[in-house]
């Protein structure tokens, strides 16, 4: 509660910043995408992680400014990195509150035009824990996003409300298997196998989150995932350090 007054001005004061975590091709280990993750650089408390301030932002109606800022940063960086020849996609997390806002798609479209960025360079990540009622409410907007070429990723799959049939009803281009499923997985993991088979049937890309060891990479690669994300290939980094990583691994 004490953070709320500070958070209400955090974007305006330039305290919200974007960090980026790489996603690599499961076979080539080349960086093909990054996920943009919000951080709050508080003037007295230091760096605050999103698990602390994003729920506050959603609860007190402050998420729109943070979400818009992260979309702006995602588009700006994607365009700059494309100009440098990195050619990586940038994934940006979007909350249920943002998805319920009709102006959100217009905001994304304006930023894409401003940066002369192809829509396919941007991926919108929605959480799999989104309540079923909210999924029904935003499906039309997700379809509109798909229609202009944006990628739609279902994040943290395996932890929330969605069943496989509900996932199949979403206009997604990608599904990200939650780290809790990946880190406990084996080469005969039925859950990951089912997700991969469903994704193949629908033409979806599969990303395994939370890959921290070579053994975990071996398992998910054998099970057929397309991309991996986790500490094995890099922690979330500020923009300058991300550029160094892209120079080394793309």
Give the strand tally: 10
In whole angstroms, the N-to-C terminal distance is 42 Å
Radius of gyration equals: 18 Å
Q: Strands of the biggest beta sheet: in what spatial order?
A: 1-2-4-5-6-7-8-9
Work out the helicity level: 40-55%
Second rung of CATH, namely the architecture: Alpha-Beta Barrel
The pLDDT mean sits at 90
> How many distinct helices?
11
What general outline do the C-alpha atoms trace? globular
Biggest sheet architecture: 8 strands, mixed, barrel
What is the CATH first-level class name? Alpha Beta
Protein structure class? alpha/beta
What share of residues are in beta strands? 15-25%
The run of helices and strands is HEEEHHEHHEHEHEHHEHEEH
CATH fold title? TIM Barrel
User: How many structural units, i.e. domains?
Assistant: 1
> What ranges have pLDDT less than 50 throughout 5 or more consecutive residues?
none
Give the CATH H-level superfamily.
EAL domain
What does this protein look like?
This is EAL domain-containing protein (Putative c-di-GMP-specific phosphodiesterase class I). By secondary structure, the chain is an alpha/beta fold. 45% of the residues lie in helices and 22% in strands. The chain contains eleven helices and ten strands. Strands 1-2-4-5-6-7-8-9 form an eight-stranded mixed beta barrel, surrounded by four helices. Helix 3 runs parallel beside helix 5. The radius of gyration is 18 Å and the shape is globular.
